[in-house]
Amino acid sequence: MPDDVILDIQDLNVWYGGIHAVKGINILIKRGEIVTLIGANGAGKSSTIRSIAGLIRGYKGYIGYRNRAGEMLRLNNRQPENMVKMGIALSPEGRRILPHLTVEENLFLGAYTRTDTVEIDNDIDYVYELFPRLKERRLQKGGTLSGGEQQMLAVGRALMSRPDLLMLDEPSLGLAPMLVAEVFGIIREINRQGKTILLVEQNAFAALSIADKAYVLEVGTITIEGAGAELLQDPRVKEAYLGG
Questions:
Q1: What is the pTM of this model?
Q2: How far apart, in Å, are the Cα atoms of 121 and each of 35, 37, 44, 215?
Q3: pLDDT-based confidence at 94, cuts 50/70/90?
Q4: What strand order describes the sheet that includes 60-66?
Q5: CATH number belonging to domain 34-54+85-241
Q6: For residue 22, what are the CA distances in angstroms to 94, 155, 221?
Q7: What DSSP designation does 102 have?
Q8: How many Cβ atoms sit within 10 Å of the Cβ of residue 188?
Q9: 158 backbone dihedrals φ, ψ, rounded to 5°
Q10: Residue 244: pLDDT above 80?
Q11: Are 58 and 17 in contact (CB under 8 A)?
């Protein structure tokens, strides 16, 4: 396996009860890339990244992750908190912030596996540089934020674990078009600063516009894969996901 590969998924199969949600998919992610999974609801996108994060157990197949020491480790059946310690963070669909805690308290929760207090404070400042509105609202309860601000908080909280692989599940869901552009601009900036990103997204145009590589999932199977720019021009993708 090449040294620049950070995530290697082979023959992944995931079930929800009796539903075969992911059917033998293969995905390869190189360090420094933005890779996106696009597809309709129920295509298997969230099942895939939840399996990587350790939130779904009992799947079949291989998920390998290259840790900070350069070792390729099998992730199967590891606890979610161990994934975070290894450098994998998930910003979940629906944001899942704690509404009764302040913005800053939510951010500190993202660093719960860390003990380097000074560096944690530095990373709070880093998140505030990325998301100035969060700094303005740092003492507000998370539940009082707008949808866009809550999404920024969810991404910022994930960054607080200092991940090498940042996974974002539907970051544009429910956002106005102007906010979608802002959030995707920040995702691109996070990538430019060295983070590898796995992006699950229904907004195919926004996702493909920033992705180095893309996979189209349909009913649990990868039907198309290639460079993001290539898929933007693919007639099949245009017809199914880009309004023709």
A1: 0.93
A2: 30, 33, 37, 37
A3: low
A4: 19-30, 5-16, 60-66, 72-74
A5: 3.40.50.300
A6: 21, 25, 6
A7: B
A8: 15
A9: -65, -40
A10: no
A11: no
